[in-house]
TrEMBL record:
GO CC entries: cytosol
Protein name: ATP-dependent RNA helicase SrmB
Entries under PROSITE patterns matching the protein: HELICASE_ATP_BIND_1, HELICASE_CTER
Start and end residues of each Helicase ATP-binding domain: 24-170
SUPFAM superfamilies for the chain: P-loop containing nucleoside triphosphate hydrolases
First-tier enzyme category under EC: hydrolase
Keywords linked to the UniProt accession: ATP-binding, Helicase, Hydrolase, Nucleotide-binding
Source species of the chain: Paraprevotella clara
Pfam families linked: Helicase_C, ResIII
Single GO molecular function: ATP binding
Organism superkingdom: Bacteria
Residue ranges constituting the Helicase C-terminal domain according to the UniProt record: 226-383
InterPro entries: Helicase/UvrB_N (IPR006935), Helicase_ATP-bd (IPR014001), Helicase_C-like (IPR001650), Helicase_Restrict-Modif_Enz (IPR050742), P-loop_NTPase (IPR027417)
Length: 628
């Protein structure tokens, strides 16, 4: 009888929810279901629970690699599930209702199998190609099928609908991190202009799987300078941390191990050719701290469960989204021995795929309407913070993409495709089209400089602290002087642009106040310094009369109340009965107001009383404004 680890077998809430959704689909008539859950969230536990519940009726678990067969076997044992194994020449006991098989071995003996499972589970189902796996559906047409994967996508863009009817998706990776089920991460990437990224850009050949050709990758990337850079980056940002390095091939991995060991780092190399017993011994040494780094060739991209991983070092370029997410996901399992995982992206995969928490349209990829491949380099933004000038980052040609627990909040500058843009709370508000950005004090954010070309001709714009492009139409050298910006107009004439009113002045105007209202003065002309319909007019100081209470200003045909609690702008009609007659702007309504600015009464025209242009000084007094 298998020994059951009770604590190990208890499903988490989201795993129970996914299991319930799976059964709903099966009972609803969808015989073949694919389940997507991010790497590190326990797909294998979900699988083991489903296997245990259906063991009496027979279950077959199929995977594509022998090392995954062994891991699944260990998990089933912890769940107390009796099972046999068909892989690498080992055949399950005929009495066992649950069997674990590699697809390679199974394809050779499937015709001789009398075993008839009620459920067939396909692990790492993104590898399930129809021409290879179709035999399972043909052999057991009445069985229920479950495909498990973190990445339901293919580099070729081929759909999964030829094998699976439905895709069930779990939460986003970001939510798993926020709720504490996955570890947070810090991400440091190769600079878009670095030698490493330029090397990747030289890769032009493709392998049979559509990814970069291994031989060309090794020729370009496996060089002393590149390996020294890997070592220096690890020692600078993650020295002493336990981790995994993803290499191109065995030779590349061997060179990395040799260089790291010379630098005092305890490390080993593992690949598919490493004997199983030696592999288990090395992993045990790693768990116990005798080995710090494991340099591997694709062996730990899938199915490897070591939560203690503190650093992932990506030294192998790829065009495959699945490979990228599987690799970085190895470090995102939660462990009490780490606060987060450090991702050292030495080949600029961020530029092609974005961060691991990017939201992917898995349904489109499942249906074959979108390929799971990288896009053109420099597509994803590099956010520029103060740490961008850290000497260590600059010297290593690296940029910090994300800190632990960092969220994209507030106003930020980012670089994309060699140009700068601005984002607010992680959303683009100004497209990356600027050659330079200079930060400004609040209430502004930045001066943004367009390129000197036939289209923009060196235009400069101003973005405020709310992410709004104020579009001043300035050119050349621009200086911020409070709320004014000194620059040049399109014709090359020097101007001063007022950001509050969007007006241009030939010279810097004088500033002053009329009561609570700010004014600007150019020569003898005054204007209100705020944008309000009906107030966009100029006047001279002789045009202004001020009430004795200093609550009312009459400027030509306008009357303005110096009180925030009252309607402040009216059309001035005259004086009557010790009060002031005005008309509400845009309305056919008259109002009598006191010299305090307070309303007395409203009525429809015509006005029955006598109206004069001068006040009765017995009741109301005005004086001329001296200006400034």
């Amino acid at each position: 009888m298998e020994q059951v680890d009770a604590g190990y077998t208890e499903l988490r809430s989201y795993q129970r929810e996914m299991k319930h959704r799976l059964y709903e689909k099966w009972w609803g008539g969808s015989r073949s279901v694919m389940v997507q859950m991010p790497t590190g969230t326990g797909k294998t536990f979900l699988m083991a629970a489903v296997v245990r519940e259906n063991a009496a009726d027979g279950v077959l678990v199929v995977t594509h690699r022998i090392e995954l067969v062994e891991q699944i076997s260990e998990t089933l044992s912890r769940f107390g599930v009796r099972h046999g194994v068909i892989a690498g020449g080992r055949k399950a006991l005929l009495a066992e209702n649950v069997r674990v098989a590699s697809i390679q071995t199974l394809s050779r003996c499937i015709d001789s199998l009398s075993f008839c499972p009620s459920v067939v589970v396909v692990d790492e189902a993104h590898h399930a190609l129809a021409k290879t796996y179709r035999i399972l559906w043909e052999k057991w047409p009445e069985a229920l099928f479950l495909g498990l994967t973190a990445t339901p996508c293919r580099l070729s863009g081929e759909p999964f609908t030829d094998l699976f009817e439905v895709l069930l998706q779990a939460w986003s990776m970001e939510r798993f991190i926020d709720e504490g089920w996955l570890a947070d991460f810090e991400y440091i990437s190769a600079d878009p202009n670095s030698k490493a990224v330029r090397r990747v850009g030289l890769l032009s050949k493709r392998g049979a799987d559509g990814d970069y050709q291994l031989k060309e990758m090794a020729t370009v990337m496996d060089c002393p300078e590149s390996i020294r850079h890997l070592y220096d980056t690890y020692q600078t940002f993650a020295s002493g941390k336990k981790g995994i390095v993803y290499a191109i091939n065995r030779e590349h991995a061997r060179h990395i191990v040799e260089y790291y060991r010379k630098g005092g780092v305890s490390c080993c190399m593992i690949d598919a050719k490493t004997p199983p017993e030696e592999r288990r011994s090395l992993v045990e040494d790693y768990r116990n701290g005798r080995i710090t780094l494991m340099v591997n060739v694709d062996i730990f991209s899938e199915g490897w469960d070591v939560p203690e991983v503190e650093v992932i070092q990506l030294a192998r370029p790829t065009l495959s989204l699945a490979k990228y997410l599987q690799q970085v996901g190895r470090g995102m399992r939660v462990s009490s021995k780490k606060s987060h995982v450090m991702i050292l992206d030495q080949v600029g995969l961020y530029l092609a795929f974005g961060m691991p928490i990017q939201r992917w349209d898995w349904q489109r990829m499942f249906e074959g309407r979108q390929a799971g491949r990288s896009v053109t380099c420099n597509t994803y933004p590099i956010y520029i913070g103060e740490e961008a000038m850290e000497k260590q980052l600059v010297n290593l040609e690296m940029v910090r993409i994300k800190r632990k627990e960092e969220k994209r909040e507030g106003m930020e500058v980012f670089m994309q495709g060699g140009k700068y843009g601005i984002a607010l709370d992680g959303k683009e508000v100004c497209a990356p089209q600027f050659t330079r950005i200079e930060r400004l004090p609040e209430p502004y954010f930045a001066l943004c400089f367009y390129p000197y070309d036939a289209v923009f001709r060196g235009k400069v714009t101003v973005v405020d602290a709310k992410g709004r492009d104020l579009r001043p139409e300035l050119y050349g050298k621009v200086e911020c002087k409070g709320d004014f910006f000194k620059g040049y107009d399109f014709a090359g004439k020097q101007v001063y642009w007022d950001s509050k009113t969007r007006r241009f002045y030939e010279r810097m105007p004088e500033l002053g106040r009329l009561g609570r209202f700010e004014l600007v003065k150019q020569d003898a002309a005054y204007m209100f310094r705020f944008r309000e319909r009906g107030l966009d007019f100029s006047f001279r100081k002789e045009d202004v009369r001020v009430s004795a209470t200093e609550k009312v200003f009459i400027i030509g045909k306008h009357l303005i109340v110096n009180d925030k609690k009252e309607q402040f702008l009216y059309e001035f009609l005259g004086f009557s009965k010790g009060m002031i007659l005005v008309k509400l702007p845009g309305q056919n309504v008259y109002r009598l107001i006191l010299d305090s600015g307070n309303r007395f009464c409203d009525f429809r025209p015509p006005y029955p009383g006598t109206v004069t242009r001068t006040p009765d000084r017995m009741y109301i007094r005005f004086h001329h404004w001296p200006g400034f």
